[in-house]
Amino acid sequence: MTKKRVFLVDDHPIMRQGLGQLINHEPDMEVVGEASDAASGLTGVIESRPDLVIIDISLPGKNGLELIKDIRSHLKSAALLVHSMHDEGLYVERVLRAGAQGYIMKQEGARRVLDAVRKVLNGDIYVSPAMSGKILEIFSGRRPTTQDPVEALSDRQFEIFQMIGQGKGTRAIAGDLKVSVKTVDAHRANIKDKLHLKSGTELVRYAVRWVENQNQKPQ
């Protein structure tokens, strides 16, 4: 039996180890490589040409959304599954539009992770039961996408906007993303322009309210 080849991209070694043990324990799958950031992840995926790549959203440098797009431009055959701590309601639509086939949160148990892995390997889409109806409506055209102005942000801008809403300052964001403070400041300025905000204080207030509202939505 030919085993399905899986590549892991996550900046937490313990998470990679746990996923690796889970997958290698299955008789029909094996981990063929792993990476802790987007740059080495893309190189490893191109070299190993796996059947499935499991990707975290939060990565040093480029985030998981950008990595998905990069992989898609080099390797269209691989299935892509996002495995993230971030609430799927904030990211799942962006993930699917970027080219992934599934999204599962890290809080889910091993059995559900394996279910997601097998579903995307079979060519299907995997999201939680709570999100499946909403995603079907959006992608079938029966329900328009939200008019929330935040949707106008690029994936990187959206990530920084969310971090601002979580109370992180510019230096903390730059450290988390492994970019310069100047780069974060440039993104903040562009975010303000797109959201028609006049000051950094307005941006912080807007972002905090937005994140709070998202957290209060029923799942």
Any overview of this molecule?
This protein has 219 residues and is an alpha/beta fold. The chain folds into 2 domains: 4-140, Response regulator (Rossmann fold), CATH 3.40.50; 149-216, Orthogonal Bundle (Arc Repressor Mutant, subunit A), CATH 1.10.10. It contains 10 helices and 5 strands, in the order βαβαβαβαβαααααα. A 5-stranded parallel beta sheet has the order 2-1-3-4-5, with helices on both faces. It is globular and about 60 Å long. The termini are far apart. The model has no long low-confidence stretch (mean pLDDT 89).
Q: What is this structure's SSE topology?
A:
Elements: E1 4-9, H1 13-24, E2 29-35, H2 38-48, E3 52-55, H3 64-74, E4 79-84, H4 88-98, E5 102-105, H5 110-121, H6 129-140, H7 155-165, H8 170-177, H9 181-194, H10 200-216
Parallel strand pairs: 1-2, 1-3, 3-4, 4-5
CATH architecture label name of the largest domain: 3-Layer(aba) Sandwich
**Low confidence ranges:** none
Which range best describes the helical content: under 10%, 10-25%, 25-40%, 40-55%, 55-70% or over 70%?
40-55%
Gap from first CA to last CA? 40 Å
Give a count of the beta strands, DSSP E runs of length 2 or more: 5
Succession of helices and strands: EHEHEHEHEHHHHHH
Strands in their spatial order, largest beta sheet: 2-1-3-4-5
Oligomer: single chain
The radius of gyration is: 18 Å
> Average pLDDT value?
89
What's this, in brief?
This protein is α/β, with parallel strands linked by helices and 219 residues long.
